[in-house]
Amino acid sequence: MDLDVFVSAHRAEWDRLDHLLRRRRRLTGAEADELVALYQRTATHLSLIRSSTPDPQLLGRLTQLVARARNAVTGTRRASWRDVTRFLTHGFPAALYRTRHWWVPTAIVSTLAAALIGWWIATRPEVQASIGAPAALREMTRPGGGYETYYSSNPAASFAAQVWTNNAQAAALCLVLGAFLCVPVLWILLTNMVNIGMGIGLMASAGRLDVFLGLIIPHGLLELTAVFVAAGTGLRLGWTVIDPGPRTRRAALAEEGRAALGMAIGLALVLFVSGAIEGFVTPSGLPTWARIGIGVAAELLFLAYVYVLGRRAVREGETGDLDADERSAAVPLAA
Questions:
Q1: Which H helix or E strand runs over 30?
Q2: Quick check: 69 and 32 in contact, CB under 8 A?
């Protein structure tokens, strides 16, 4: 596309749109219709220039012009409780359901990896010796040792807040760093599975695996599921960079990135629940079966949320992305 010719052909439309946007008096009906038409055409022009001959100065002007026109056409919009409710009942579960083909395999492979690492450590005294001195390992795994007192090391509310913050940061890192071709997400997953496998292996070697599982399962089911969802979404985002499919790479990354941002908000709420369980249920005096029962119930409720509400929302056309009228305009691509 010859940029100079394109600019000469459409400059008058852009100037007219800018003139209408600067009007201080109220537009007439004909002028309002004209503004909408010019906004739509200018948005198309912007998409064409972005995809063919990007010019920084022209892109800046048209981006600002389209943004101003969009605000004038759609009006300013404030989030309401209805938006929050719709996000929790449609947007978030739909995004979880749509990405299940990524996070479910991630969960299975990661769990198997942690179990394998645990088995390797439990059956290899030389590996245990490389982790720490025998006296230090005994101190960690004995009754009332480090693994058990960890969950009651701070007041419950403080501990729950700390756990929630740490896990939310880890989930956010998985979502954000996924765009870097998946590698950072795989590293975060490996680090977490090694830590879990180490706990399994050391406690199993001390004959106290049942105690360890009784401590980690109540909160760990939901907590790890949230981490696996974040990791799977991050991997999907990274794969979008590698293979955007029929969409342009920019459009695909924008769509998946917006959905990932919504996932980060939703997962923060899920991790808040798991943090509360870890802070108040795991170190409580409840019998092991009751603590595990609470963890299993929380996990089942989450899966029902995904596979019941999420499937229903997807069938209704929900994608977890912004509504169509809130997305940037884009030109259709030939098949």
A1: helix 29-51
A2: no
